[in-house]
Amino acid sequence: MYQANEHRYDKMQYHRVGNSGLKLPAISLGLWHNFGNVDKFSNQREIICGAFDMGITHFDLANNYGPPAGSAEENFGRILAKDLAPYRDELIISSKAGYYMWPGPYGEWGSKKNVIASCDQSLKRLGLDYVDIFYHHRPDPDTPLEETAQALDLLVRQGKALYIGISNYSAEDTVRITEIFKELKTPFIIHQPAYSMFNRWIEDGLKDALVKEKLGAIAFSPLSQGLLTNRYLNGVPEDSRANRSDSPFLSKENVDKTLEKVSALNEVAQERGQTLAEMAIAWILRDGIVTSVLVGASRLSQLEDNVKALENTNFTTEELAKIDHILIAE
After folding, report:
1. What's the pLDDT score for residue 235?
2. pLDDT tens-digit profile of 21-45?
3. 194 inside domain
4. Domain that holds residue 176
5. Residue 328 lies in a domain
6. C-alpha–C-alpha distance, residues 152 and 116, integer Å
């Protein structure tokens, strides 16, 4: 029988989500990869229980996570029932709808039909009556924002979600849907964008919008699919994602330029007494706008290493200037 570490809250940091009453751990665990039916269940259980032992209370899923789609929720539901059920009120469990899940016109995007059905399916797979946060996973170009917002609001009123979030929305659409949620009095509290040193798109308006609207943010792909780790310090590994035949990363010019930056960033990290991955995570948390960093893990030791980033999240002006110079260099 699993028993949680009694010191699990001693070292983890918790940040308030925007203007809400909810707090998230500075590091959250994402189940995008490594938790499907193709992955070893005992390893999944070790990572999830080990995460909670470190004070990671937030587990982020989506209906399409696997593979196959849906299996990450099913596996997490099994672990929840077997190990974490006594701790349910200490957990933040989130899921999402919006990407393709079933055939026909209602199996993806943001219609009321899709959102409600998706949430019901996710709750069944998870074995839960409600999730703590339910996200719309991507904006739908063909469905009015009002319809998607009303569907998400309905989930709260039905008791199927405590809070609402969005993911992959532009700054403009974030502001627009925020106004709708305000009118509905929906507990809309958080945005989940991709954000890393190599993917800074949210700095072009979205971060300002989040501050203005008093919303939280949780960043996914913080290590740029492994680029911001020691994995690429000696070149592109044969078994890496970057080495796939369809990867735009693999032109020689891109490889040389990117690996030069990775090496230079690693030198800054070493000067700070951190690994490159630790610095990359700390950098995302540097200004307090991002509430939590969403990390994945294929083994528990990776997660343990990522949590070490919280030992130093402060940057000098000189360090930030050096990092910016590296990142914008042609």
Report:
1. 75
2. 999 999 999 999 999 999 999 999 9
3. yes
4. 14-227+278-310
5. no
6. 8
Give the tokens for residue 190: 């958080």
Residue 252, pLDDT > 70, answer no
Alpha carbon distance 274, 277 (integer Å): 8
Residue 211 lies in a domain: yes
Angle between helices 112-126 and 71-79 (to 10 degrees): 40
Two structure tokens written together for 47? 């990572």
Contact present, 303 and 51 (Cβ < 8 Å)? yes
Domain count across the chain: 1
DSSP letters along 113-167, please? HHHHHHHHHHHHHHT-S-EEEEEE-S--TTS-HHHHHHHHHHHHHTTSEEEEEEE
**What is the CATH number for 97?**
3.20.20.100
Q: Tokens 């059920």, residue?
A: 85
User: How big, in percent rounded to 5, are the helix, strand and coil portions of the chain?
Assistant: 45, 15, 40
288 assigned to some structural domain: yes
257 pLDDT tier (thresholds 50, 70, 90)? confident
DSSP 44: H
pLDDT band, residue 268 (cuts 50/70/90): very high
